[in-house]
Amino acid sequence: MSTHPTDTTAELPELPHRPPRHTVPEPQSPESRGPEQHDAEQHGPEQQSSEQEDAGKKGGGRDRYFDLLRAVALFRVVFYHLLGWAWLPVVFPSMGVMFALAGNLMARSLARRPAPGVVRGRLRRLLPPLWLLGVVGVSGMLVAGWRPDDEGHPGWWWLHLAYWILPLSDPPYGDGLPGVHGLISDGWAADLGVPLWYIRAYLWFVLLSPFLLRALRRLPWPTIVAPVVLSAALEFGALSVPGWRLEAQLSDFGAFGACWLLGMAHQEGVLRRLPRYVVPSLAPAVAGIGLWYALAHDLREGHDLDDMPFAQSLWSFAAVLLLLHISPSWSEWPARLRRWDRLITLLNSRAVTIYLWHNVCIGVVEALWDRLWGISWLEANARWVLESPWPQLPAVWLLTAVCVLCFGWVEDLAARRRPRLWPDGRVGAGTHRA
Length: 434
Known about the structure:
By secondary structure, the chain is mainly α. 59% of the residues lie in helices and 1% in strands. It has 18 helices and 2 strands. It has a two-stranded antiparallel ribbon with strand order 1-2. Helix 2 (64-83) crosses helix 13 (341-349), helix 5 (115-143) runs antiparallel to helix 8 and helix 5 runs parallel beside helix 14 (351-371).
């Protein structure tokens, strides 16, 4: 997506795009899987809320197909941020998928409970993990030398810090802060701050959802395609927006608003009312236009769908439409997927923690990997280990697992559940397995 100046001196990409550093020196779209798992119905099988029990009685319950999509989306986000390959968001547009699943859950909750209560519940699950990240991250930035006069406008610096409490806009971070040699790479503050665009966008989608659902029920398809029209208007200059913060909000709404609305439409039965041939006929055509536009605008590593909001809106819309059209609605895992139950449950239960911390974990692993260049035997006989990002992937997930153990409990507190270190759905550990 387009980039915008941060509250420091740098530019903050709209999407979680970070160029891979590897050992030689990308953020969508992010669920993250993303914060949609904050909801009680989505946090994982350990959730025993009365709302979920009622859903089960009505034949709703957990949809394991959606759990699978979230897990794949989250894994792809981590994979992309390490490798930075431009084709990964094309193969699986994680951010659009995560927004769609969150929109589906939001519509489901709004159909059962008053809107103010639903919105409060989402905010209660969304904000505490961000606050914990802020306590650690902002404290580290201050220790590293981040100061109010870095921008030359100390008053605005203090005001913008409030976005770490309620992210109505992108929280600021200290760009260019030095790392710790051999332990944390330079640019760690950007690794921590850039992906927060997703938290901000999710917050606004939650706040707008009661109004979006009302519009969807009155005018379904005009409402669904309106964000794509907005994205086109921004892309081709028909709409000019003052200020990068407002532009960021509208750009992300244009890129992913249709995905959120498709998730709501799926829950409302709008997609089921279409003839079965419509989606398989329409979606490939829309996706083709989006891919053609991306290729025509230099799709490559370091400049992919995350930097092309209009192409992103078309491609994500088409992919989400197809995935929701398939939607097998698994109440239990198919036999081939049962072996992955505990892993997928864990990823769904701790998706917020994984999304918020994985970028920093990548930076730490890369800094540690750089130290391996000092081992002469490796440099002489196994140089590929030093140059390839593949050996780093297990280390990134291992360090991310440590973050899950250290920080994941706050997701349970936010959902008013008993804190657990490793909520993978094991029987006998206070959880329920489908």
